[in-house]
Design goal:
Length: 275
């Protein structure tokens, strides 16, 4: 039986409606740098103070531009213990928090949700619990490189990541937040970042492949993040996802490929904010 016929039979047996008949879930992934300098990435940009009046004006312009997307749900890089994935911290949010809390979840996500009078912000991050695998086993890549005289190869990849971070810090001196986010969300930037991950594939041999393991686990974390999004997405939803820009490639991949979902480019909205 041909593949097309097999798929058609499966859909009939499952009672599935034609894909065109369903209103897709629109997903806009807004990749950000970390405003509060948590130092959790391999190469960390030093962000300036987003609570300063100039940056607050830029962030309000950003929120107003993103509001034009008319998001029905906002999802952020945080974890929830609730079955509905509600971010418990949003319940106590007031605009006063914008003067003290620098995290992009608060500065963009909570700000916009409050402005749009959304009742919830959804926390969809995935981190390993006790007994679960490490989603970013970079230590094993380092160990292999040291044990097998591959440190120069590893350092070359890390130097590329450091150069990207340095460029962002320099651009920060002359750009608004919206302009910086345009740079982080351009397709070319996203391709360069995933290419750096793929360079780690070459760190390994026929028996041990820690670079491949790293990429596999990074994929797994992002797949679980998107799977959480799917559990609370409803037909016709317009979902804004605010996440570290390193997640752009995979989250947009899932949004563009998964049946019933459509990826929305954030750059036009960022360009509106920059004007």
């Amino acid at each position: 039986m041909k593949l097309a016929s097999t798929l058609g039979l499966f859909m009939t047996l499952a009672g599935a409606a034609p894909a065109a008949a369903a209103e897709p879930v629109q997903v806009m992934v807004l990749g950000t740098y970390h405003f509060d300098n948590p130092g959790l990435d391999l190469s960390n940009m030093t962000a300036d103070d987003v609570t300063l009046p100039r940056r607050q004006a830029e962030l309000q312009a950003l929120a107003s531009a993103l509001a034009a997307f008319k998001p029905t749900k906002i999802m952020v890089e945080a974890r929830s213990k609730s079955a509905d994935l509600a971010d418990a911290r949003f319940a106590s949010f007031t605009p006063a928090a914008l003067t003290t809390q620098k995290n992009e979840t608060v500065q963009i996500g909570y700000r916009l949700a409050h402005q749009l009078k959304l009742g919830k912000v959804y926390a969809i991050d995935e981190q390993p619990r006790a007994g679960e695998p490490d989603y970013f086993p970079f230590g094993k890549v380092v160990e292999f490189a040291k044990a097998n005289k591959r440190e120069v190869q590893l350092q070359e990849v890390m130097a590329k990541a450091a150069a990207v971070t340095k460029d962002m810090e320099e651009m920060q001196k002359r750009m608004t937040i919206a302009q910086l986010l345009i740079e982080r969300n351009r397709p070319g930037t996203t391709r360069k970042e995933i290419a750096m991950y793929y360079e780690f594939l070459g760190i390994g041999d026929t028996e041990q492949q820690p670079g491949a393991d790293l990429n596999a686990m990074w994929y797994l974390r992002n797949a679980k993040i998107f799977a959480k999004l799917m559990t609370v997405a409803g037909r016709g939803d317009r979902i804004l996802v605010i996440y570290g820009a390193g997640h752009n490639y995979w989250l947009r991949h899932f949004a563009s490929i998964t049946p019933g979902f459509r990826s929305v480019d954030p750059v036009p909205y960022l360009q509106a904010a920059s004007r």
